[in-house]
Design goal:
about 230 residues, alpha/beta, Rossmann fold, 7 helices, globular, binds NADP nicotinamide-adenine-dinucleotide phosphate
């Protein structure tokens, strides 16, 4: 199976790509701005039991100019992604009164805009029966506990959840299912930067394995769902 995952250079995206490669018989295309993680993912692919391969495109998903290179790569490789996992994202944490327009532009561009246009760029290459999984956040899940400093991030993640519901309807005729996952705290560099000293109850490997399994299996029975992945209430 061909799989595209954004944000594979570290954290949850890296772990999701590793889970896909270990599962075997997949071509995984990772997208990120840095080349971090490529060597390790190639290593995992080589050691995978059933022969997987990792491919990478250096791309800033917040800019438009990666689209032509991505299309070329998909065409040359005859890459027909049955799974697209929109994982890349950024977190800006500030008190409400300190946010400025450039924080807004950055937060929404790197989270919502990047997800929206990656789907638009990849969807024409996806065969019927494909599954798009968008990584939102518990912060973007309606009715969840909220945290100081995350108003802009949480709103961008809520937009991703809503987009998933809308696209589930709009891509129905192409038989592409779209769901959103809303992770709670996962012990990654993003979390450590935003909440120094906080110990998350979930590791990137645990979350990556869950996301990959979900992407592989749940597209057959779910569409337009926004799913909270949380150990606490609300
Ligand atoms: N960790 C948590 O507790 C948590 C909870 C809920 C939701 N999430 C969500 O889960 C996803 C992964 O989070 P994480 O904790 O693993 O974050 P992370 O460690 O900061 O990793 C983010 C990944 O996204 C990539 N990325 C960011 N901006 C990009 C851009 N413009 N173009 C291409 N790639 C870009 C980064 O690669 P480069 O820097 O190399 O581009 C990196 O690989 C995010 O969407 C995050 O919002 C995380």
């Amino acid at each position: 199976m061909d799989i595209i995952i954004s944000g594979t250079s570290r954290g949850i995206g890296f772990a999701t790509a590793a889970a896909a490669l270990q599962h075997g018989r997949h071509r995984v295309l990772g997208l990120s701005r840095s080349t971090d993680g490529i060597e390790a993912l190639n290593d995992i692919a080589e050691k995978a039991k059933h022969g997987s391969t990792f491919h990478h495109l250096e791309a800033d998903l917040g800019e438009e100019n990666y689209a032509a290179a991505l299309k070329r790569l998909l065409d040359v490789m005859n890459f027909r992604p049955e799974i697209l996992i929109n994982n890349a994202g950024v977190l800006v944490k500030k008190n409400f009164e300190d946010f400025n327009k450039s924080d807004f532009e950055y937060t929404f561009r790197m989270n919502f805009w990047a997800t929206f246009f990656l789907i638009q760029n990849v969807q024409p290459h996806m065969p019927k029966g494909s599954h798009i999984v968008n990584i939102s956040s518990m912060g973007g899940y309606q009715g969840s506990a909220k945290f100081n400093g995350l108003s802009m991030y949480a709103a961008a993640k809520a937009a991703i959840a809503n987009l998933s519901e809308s696209l589930a309807e709009e891509l129905k005729d192409q038989k592409i299912n779209v769901n959103a996952l809303c992770p709670g705290a996962v012990q990654t560099e993003m979390l450590a930067e935003a909440f120094p000293g906080f110990k998350a109850p979930v590791t990137p490997d645990e979350m990556g394995q869950f996301i990959f399994n979900f992407a592989l299996e749940s597209g057959k029975i779910m569409n337009g769902k926004v799913i909270p992945l949380s150990l606490s209430n609300p």
